[in-house]
């Protein structure tokens, strides 16, 4: 709750309400500060290594299950696991696009 008899000071572009205890002070952003750019995320490096953008703009991924224990799997199955495939779910593709920083 703000006291009625508080004093407003400006320090380094941030307004501070005085007259309150240190744990209760409020920092108020000045009204003349304007954000000139959108926040951009760092690309997720692990996702960047796993997904690639195809020429048509869709994302390409490798299939799981071929790195080891392929002795008991049939040759056709292992061959099919070697081929890359796309991401079929639109929501997941959108999320992966955000992670790797790809535009459509």
UniProtKB/TrEMBL annotation:
Family statement: Belongs to the bacterial ribosomal protein bL35 family.
InterPro entries recorded for this chain? Answer: Ribosomal_bL35, Ribosomal_bL35-like, Ribosomal_bL35_CS, Ribosomal_bL35_sf
Q: How is this protein annotated for GO cellular component?
A: cytosolic large ribosomal subunit
Instruction: Enumerate the GO terms in the molecular function aspect.
Output: structural constituent of ribosome
Keywords on record = Ribonucleoprotein, Ribosomal protein
Q: Where is this region: Disordered?
A: 57-76
Q: What protein am I looking at?
A: 50S ribosomal protein L35
Give the species: Seminavis robusta
Q: Which residue ranges have biased composition labelled Basic residues?
A: 60-76
Q: Which residues cross the membrane?
A: none
- Any Pfam family from its record, for instance, is Ribosomal_L35p
The record's annotation in PANTHER family points to: 54S RIBOSOMAL PROTEIN BL35M, LARGE RIBOSOMAL SUBUNIT PROTEIN BL35M
The biological process GO terms on file are: translation
């Amino acid at each position: 709750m703000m006291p009625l008899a508080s004093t407003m000071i400006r320090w380094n572009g941030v307004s501070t309400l005085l007259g309150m205890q240190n744990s209760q002070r409020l920092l108020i952003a000045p009204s003349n500060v304007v954000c000139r750019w959108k926040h951009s995320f760092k690309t997720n490096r692990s996702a960047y290594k796993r997904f690639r953008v195809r020429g048509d703009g869709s994302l390409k991924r490798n299939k799981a299950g071929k790195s080891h224990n392929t002795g008991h799997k049939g040759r056709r199955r292992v061959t099919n696991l070697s081929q890359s495939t796309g991401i079929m779910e639109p929501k997941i593709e959108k999320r992966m696009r955000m992670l790797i920083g790809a535009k459509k």
